[in-house]
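Protein: Halobacterial output domain-containing protein
Species: Natrinema ejinorense
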Amino acid sequence: MSGTAPRETLTPIADTNGRTVYYDDDRGTYHTWCDDGAYEPVSTALLMTVSSVLGVEPDDLEALSECVEPDALNALFVHWRGDESRVGDGSISFRFSQCAVTVRADGEIEIDPTRRSVVPAER
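Structure follows.
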């Protein structure tokens, strides 16, 4: 497991493609961590984890490309596949299948199915 280990306050609830999905009861969020050496691209890990959290098949989710460019997302986190070393501790957040998603450079994917996007008021 890369970077940060799951906090003690997280409860394991599911296993998706060899990754454990955890639930944070205090925040109502779901978390998983991806290994630096895992071959799976971040876009695939994200699809599988969101489908597990929502209890649907990955094909039933909206197209990831409607929210973020999958190839660009994979390029940002290419170090997860062991192709390159990690540089920095950044993250990216966006909406996907009605969930707020944050992908962190340390391998953590956080999914919040309850948080809604804030749309600025029109003037």
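Remarks: The chain has a mean pLDDT of 82.
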